[in-house]
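Problem 3 from the worked examples.
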Amino acid sequence: MVEDRRKTKRLDLESSLVMKRLDGQGEDEISINVIDVSKRGIGFTCDQPLQIGALYEGHLTIWTKEVISTFIEIVRIEKTDSTFIYGGTFVGMPEQEA
């Protein structure tokens, strides 16, 4: 059995996120499919390759249809046959939004 070392509980959500890379490189907007979200970060899939360390501005639509603006730094990438699975941490998110 693999030990879960996450510092905060993750929630499985049906939500979407549109991201824009802050340094102007790459696509203007990227649509992703959210796998799970925690207070500190997000797991998602995307058909486009993203770069570790890249910082994106994101607008996360959650199950209540509320939109939360955030910044996400890509910290993990896993390639599957058909898509990429990413892990990102929230950067500078106010405690109230988290």
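Problem 4, a separate protein:
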Amino acid sequence: MLLLVGASGTLGSEIANRLLSAGHPLRVLARDPARVRPLAERGASVATGDITDRTSLDRALEGITHVITTANAFIVPARDAIERVDVQGNRNLIDAAKAAGVRQFVFTSAWLPDEFLRIDYFAAKRRTEAYLRASGVPYTILRPAAFMETWAMVIGEPILKTGATQIFGKGTNPVNFVAVKDVAAIVVDALDRPDAVNAVVDIFGPENLSLLDVAAVFERIKGAPARKRFLPVTMMRILSGIVKPFNPVFARQVAAGALM
């Protein structure tokens, strides 16, 4: 039996559906069971709980052999969300998995240059990796590149809707993008693979694209050139620092865009 944490998210739901399609017995952890009702209707069992609540994790892990987690607090507005969820919550989950004797813990991290560790969310990913490695729990750490779907939404969706979009910086820096469905396929493929246990797996897409390249794809779909507004990197860095005390989500989004 597998336990999936983060099943209501974009990547988590894709993983869940692939696991169910492949016939894996699946349990999903959810604070609100209504959010994972489609998975329950497909045959997943639901454990009500939260990674910030160790007692609920111990209950959810009864009979579990594998843990997969994609849970994160990137868009949670509380100022302590990253420390509470991404750091301590993941430690709770790792500790509970160790106590339950699971044979593989799959953690979704991120592939990124060290400069991104200035951002609390990405720094928390590395802290969790280190904690998992030291825990003694057999692990698989997955490090996907930037999700294609996220940047299609940020850059491309406005072009389709309004004919205009905003480009971070000059938009010429090449970036690797990977599809969520491909990451989910690798998660499922990594289960019980000897070469994936106690290993770090970097996951990349087939090519590097600049943000202007991404915009061009959607211009072709739209059939017309888009109006582009360019946000200078210096302005983004200043803006991130200004808004961080009262809007940490927007601050980390802008900081990540500046680094990209």
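Solution to problem 4. The radius of gyration is 19 Å. The CA atoms of residues 178 and 205 lie 4 Å apart.
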